[in-house]
Amino acid sequence: MLALLQRVRYEEHMSGGKREKLQSVKGMHDILPADMPRWRQFENAFRRIAAVYGYEEIRTPLLEPTDLFVHSIGETTDIVEKEMYTFVDQGEKSLTLRPEGTASCVRAYIEHNISNQEPVSKWFYLGPMYRRERPAKGRYRQFYQAGVEVFGDAGPVIDAEVIALCVQLLSELGVSNVEVLVNSLGSRDGRQSYRDALRAYLEPFRAQLCGDCQRRIDANPLRVLDCKVPNDAKIAQGAPTVLELLGADDRSHFDRVCALLDQLKIRYRVEPRLVRGLDYYTRTLFEVRDLSGELGAQSALLGGGRYDHMVQDLDGPAQPAIGFAMGIERILSAMPASAEPKRSGVFVVCVQPDLAKDALELAQALRKQNIAAGVDLRGSALKKQLARADKNRAQYVVILGPDEIAKGVVQLKNLETQNQEEVPRQKLIEKLQSVK
Ligand code: HAM
């Protein structure tokens, strides 16, 4: 803590003794109340579809031991090499803010011995992830993912079902200008021979490739296929594809996934150059891209695939697995603009400031009956109270004046139809409940 305070003081000193303007960390954003209806719309749809397909929710900690990600995502991936928020805590342990959810699910699956309790587990999760990438539209340092993971089923039928879930969710959210890409990386042995074939192809081009890719030839040649440098991408175009080298079992697994997608009438394109940036994948791999151009280079709305060795590699039982995760911010920007939220609930207004306490009393009586009731307690002018009721998208205003109080009635105005009627105070709750 002392070292931290010293660091803060040092930074203050370097900026001329002035405290820097306090604002959110670069690439990390507030989600304001005004944004929430769209987030809710997404989350409700995701939860509903996940339940319909038989998934149960899991929540894992934001912090995990750094080793978990190094051993699953892979030492030579961009995420592990340069994007993780890692620190040593007071107990001298290296911890990392999770950059994705799959490794955490696998850790939890092993830690709680789930494979002994059920043959197949279907989990879903929603939550923030952290990657120190260069911020851009659709690319943040804190972003939210919604994902699913299935343990204990080697496919290929479940592979098609997982893709079907993505397609149904996107369609229900109105995200239609998309393309589903599928590929197979083959089993782990097959992947190794593909790596060798890629190395052999890339070696003669070594001097023409960017510095990163020159290193990648030795460390992880698959990542050269993902390089965005134009000349490297051109060279990668001529590389042998993983599909050409698939063994018979892997080929048949992949053909069956494609046949099932055809049977389910899901449109997709086989993209033999799809490799994705995480090392744990084997066999089926897929991505859904936005075709609208809105998201620029960040067009991947979701990505996933099979990771049949990760559970065992992290010292768990041999259990196959498959899953995907979608970037919620990216999905939201691909969703069509939503209609203005529907009016609901009540706003209690009073015609003069000294009646604010009566307005609160009435609002409380409504709230106790589960009727959402807003009220302006600042003693504002009637016009201001009515404007606030409208901004809150209330369906009714209940107007209280001295005459109404004396007569034991209220004025009830429907803000949708503009109809106004006098209602006895005792009948108000019954009336509002009948129209709720
Ligand atoms: P991923 O491709 O790294 O896969 O991320 C999945 C999705 O998260 C991406 O398609 C994108 O929509 C979103 N995403 C990634 N990075 C950012 C960022 N910096 N800003 C905004 N959105 C981002 C995974 O994370 C795997 N765990 C998916 C998986 C689950 N595979 C199997 N199971």
Overview of the molecule:
With 436 residues, the protein is of the alpha+beta class. Helices cover 38% and strands 20% of the residues. It has helices at 2-14, 36-52, 66-73, 78-83, 102-111, 157-172, 188-202, 211-219, 230-237, 248-263, 310-313, 328-334, 356-368, 382-391, 402-407, 428-435, and strands spanning 56-57, 63-65, 86-88, 94-97, 121-130, 142-151, 178-184, 269-270, 282-290, 300-306, 321-327, 346-350, 373-375, 396-400, 409-414, 420-424. The radius of gyration is 28 Å and the shape is elongated. The model has no long low-confidence stretch (mean pLDDT 93). Bound molecules: histidyl-adenosine monophosphate.
Sum up the structure in keywords.
single chain, 436 residues, alpha+beta, eight-stranded mixed β-sheet, five-stranded mixed β-sheet, 16 helices, 16 strands, elongated, binds histidyl-adenosine monophosphate
In short:
This protein has 16 helices and 16 strands. The chain has 436 residues and is of the alpha+beta class. A hairpin with a 5-residue loop joins strand 3 (86-88) and strand 4 (94-97).
Enumerate the distinct ligands: histidyl-adenosine monophosphate
Mean pLDDT across the residues is 93
Strand order, sheet with most strands: 1-5-6-11-10-9-7-8
Coarse shape = elongated
Helix content: 25-40%
Beta-strand portion reads 15-25%
Largest sheet, if any?
Answer: 8 strands, mixed
Low-confidence stretches: none
Give the N-terminus to C-terminus distance in angstroms: 53 Å
Overall radius of gyration: 28 Å
Q: How many strands in all?
A: 16
Q: From the helix content, strand content and strand pairing, which structural class follows?
A: alpha+beta
Question: So how many helices?
Answer: 16
